[in-house]
Design a protein that fits this description.
Largest sheet: 4 strands, mixed
Shape: globular
Number of domains: 3
Number of helices: 12
Length: 297
Amino acid sequence: MPDFDAGPRPAVPERLRQRIFRGSDAVAEGLISASCLRREYLSVIHGMYVPAGTVIDHGIRTLAALLRMSAPAVLTAHSAAWWYGVTHAEPADPVMLILPRDLPVKGARGVRVHVTDLSHADIHIVDGLRLASPIRTARDAATLTSPRDALATVDGLLRRGLTTRDELRRMTEEMSGRWGVARVRTVFELADGLSESPAESWTRWLLHRASIPPPVLQFEVVDDHGRFVARVDFGWPDCRVALEYDGSYHADPLQQVKDRERDAALRSLGWTVIHMTAIDLRDPERVLQDLRRALKQ
């Protein structure tokens, strides 16, 4: 569980120093004043607070959402995936909760509540929290979140061995004719767990939407003697085209030298190397044009 210790702050009562709490309850119990609440604490979601200095990530927001609910809830989609170790969700992403049909309770701002039935098999207990099972988490990600983000979640679950492509296929078959099956099928058919970061999954969704031929992920390039040259993020070996996603660490000067040497080795073998960054995910036209030209589309 996260450590909520924000360090010694004399104005913070000991009972509140390492916990998420409902602000109105703390004020009503006389633990703090309303002015102290505003001054010494941070709002996680509406009405729920932590001591100032706490780093608020999506995991902390899920805990705050669960504590705020007046009914037992189950985390799902990217919020459940966080507690399975797929920590892709950003702090601002909505907390995704499931409630049974007989307990239709609205969520706070920043919390999305999905009212539906769950079987015992759909619920796993992790760190004392009620989570949708990995396969149910994958299904809910595909039906309740954007396909781009859902692909990152499902790829992460596959990469950690929490579900399998066979389970994804069975889930798609079981959903035949039901609401959301088209979205589930699209995401599940693309997911393979080979992406090493959310950005690589987002890039694959971008390529899919742009009707770029499917690449080979993490393709290993060898020279004419079979010696390893490089592993590329996205490869089209028949066309000798590589697409590399450059995360923030590529800005390091030493890494830039390595990247140039690597690109030169690939180009000496007749490969075209195209680079993209987070900016290109927001405005991808330049990358897509370069790819289409290199692939002779």
